[in-house]
Write a structure and sequence with these properties.
This protein is an alpha+beta fold and 124 residues long. The chain has four helices and six strands; from the N terminus they run H-E-E-H-E-E-E-H-H-E. The radius of gyration is 13 Å and the shape is globular. The chain starts with 8 loop residues before the first helix and ends with a strand. The N terminus is likely disordered.
Length: 124
């Protein structure tokens, strides 16, 4: 693992997603580093939550804007936009989960990846 070099593309995209979350005051932001897990589906999961569906949607939009502005990439796939309870933005090597608070507690996605290295971020 390279520490003092330029960020990998997936690390950079995860940082952009985190900035987008912070811009809209997302709560309990974490990044799971899945690169050393044998059966992982991506390099990173970024997870946060918000108290309302309106804020969940605003956070997802902010993430998309930040990533597009810097990389010209749209998510490969998006799920959950219409309901705003759990929005998933899939950038292939980075998957962002934006939950409504009660849904995050119910699904406990971060608990499913207990072997991942977790980094905690402050809400802006």
């Amino acid at each position: 693992m390279v520490k003092n070099k330029v960020l990998s593309e997936s690390a950079y995209i995860s940082e952009l997603a985190i900035h987008g979350i912070q811009e809209k005051k997302g709560n309990d932001i974490i990044r799971l580093d899945l690169r050393n897990i044998f059966s992982s589906v991506s390099d990173y999961f970024v997870i946060c939550h918000a108290d309302s569906s309106t804020q969940v949607k605003a956070i997802a939009n902010s993430i998309e804007e930040e990533i597009f502005k810097a990389t010209r990439q749209d998510p490969w796939r998006k799920e959950g936009i219409e309901h705003g309870e759990w929005i998933l933005l899939d950038y292939v090597d980075v998957v962002v989960h934006v939950f409504r608070t009660d849904k995050r507690e119910f699904y406990g996605v971060e608990d499913l990846w207990g072997d991942a290295e977790i980094k905690y971020y402050k809400s802006a």
